[in-house]
């Protein structure tokens, strides 16, 4: 595969390329065949070990943080990633990332993330024997922004063992190493697929991930017609309608339809304050065909009508 799909967006103080002999003390898995880079940021250090295999780009990121940190990263192109969280509540998930900027919060301490960016063509070849992965492709065209995960499963021994075996391969036998990585990747996908079919999920992690997917989907689609059909949205995000609302209430303090209204109202307010669009234009922009209906919804939400909002420009009629 070609080089990395993911770029860390960090306030870097120092970046060093390291040899195998000079890896830091907090490195748990020294990968013989990987390129290693130590990144120093204000909150601590990140060791990035990476390698490109013909069917997957592999990244092992080890964080050694003296303070809590928010890590931003950019995904350059549509990518299918098998993500292992190796510390804390160990879990893994196969996720479809669309191009964009993402953020993850880390607490003080050590964290380990192992990522396999899997070749789309190779994975498509595997689908006949792994039909449970098909929703990742069926729904991707509708979820144009953000990410879609099939679900976080606990990293049991049968899943984590082949992943760790990839990290300890001997670089002195390149052909054997390539075939071993391929074999272990196939084992990981088959074991993960089996856990999906058995619905063996890490529930807390799944809900956290699904909340992120819901938020990104609403941000990208709040003005579209599709957002008004909860059953369709639930299907696209691989949830039931009741779970869609349950997760929305827990994560955002409101059911799904109110989350949509929140985004529509706040984006409408922003346009009223900063643009010269008419109220009718703003109504259409945020998903309402009827300007009067938008005005009533706006007043119900903010307690003030759109016509009472001070405009930066003079043009703000209902026409």
UniProtKB/TrEMBL annotation:
Q: Which residue ranges does the record assign to the HTH araC/xylS-type domain? A: 212-312
Highest taxon listed in the record's lineage: Bacteria
What molecular functions are annotated in GO for this chain? DNA-binding transcription factor activity; sequence-specific DNA binding
Which keywords does UniProt give here? DNA-binding, Transcription, Transcription regulation
Q: What Pfam families does this protein map onto?
A: HTH_18
Q: Give the matching Gene3D superfamilies.
A: Homeodomain-like (1.10.10.60)
Protein name (record)? AraC-like DNA-binding protein
In the record, what lineage is assigned to the organism producing the protein?
Answer: Bacteria, Pseudomonadati, Bacteroidota, Sphingobacteriia, Sphingobacteriales
């Amino acid at each position: 595969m070609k080089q990395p799909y993911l770029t860390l967006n960090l306030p870097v103080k120092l970046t060093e390329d390291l040899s195998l002999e000079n890896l830091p003390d907090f490195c748990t898995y020294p990968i013989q065949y990987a390129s290693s880079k130590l990144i120093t940021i204000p909150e601590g250090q990140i060791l990035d070990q990476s390698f490109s295999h013909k069917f997957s780009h592999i990244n092992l990121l080890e964080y050694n943080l003296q303070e809590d940190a928010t890590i931003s990263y950019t995904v350059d192109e549509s990518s299918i990633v098998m993500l292992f969280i190796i510390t804390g509540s160990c879990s893994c998930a196969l996720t479809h990332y669309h191009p964009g900027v993402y953020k993850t919060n880390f607490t003080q301490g050590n964290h380990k993330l192992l990522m396999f960016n899997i070749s789309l063509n190779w994975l498509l070849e595997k689908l006949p024997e792994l039909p449970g992965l098909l929703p990742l492709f069926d729904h991707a065209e509708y979820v144009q922004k953000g990410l879609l995960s099939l679900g976080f499963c606990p990293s049991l021994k049968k899943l984590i063992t082949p992943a760790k075996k990839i990290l300890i391969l001997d670089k002195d036998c390149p052909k054997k190493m390539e075939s071993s990585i391929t074999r272990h990747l196939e084992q990981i996908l088959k074991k993960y697929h089996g856990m999906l079919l058995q619905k063996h999920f890490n529930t807390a992690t799944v809900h956290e991930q699904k909340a992120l997917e819901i938020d990104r989907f609403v941000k990208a689609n709040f003005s579209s017609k599709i957002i008004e059909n909860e059953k369709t949205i639930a299907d696209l995000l691989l949830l039931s309608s009741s779970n869609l609302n349950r997760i929305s209430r827990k994560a955002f303090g409101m059911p799904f339809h109110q989350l949509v209204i929140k985004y529509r109202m706040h984006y409408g307010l922003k346009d009223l304050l900063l643009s010269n669009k008419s109220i009718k234009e703003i109504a259409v922009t945020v998903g309402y065909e009827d300007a009067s209906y938008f005005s009533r919804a706006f007043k119900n939400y903010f307690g003030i009508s759109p016509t009472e909002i001070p405009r930066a420009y003079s043009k703000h009629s209902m026409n």
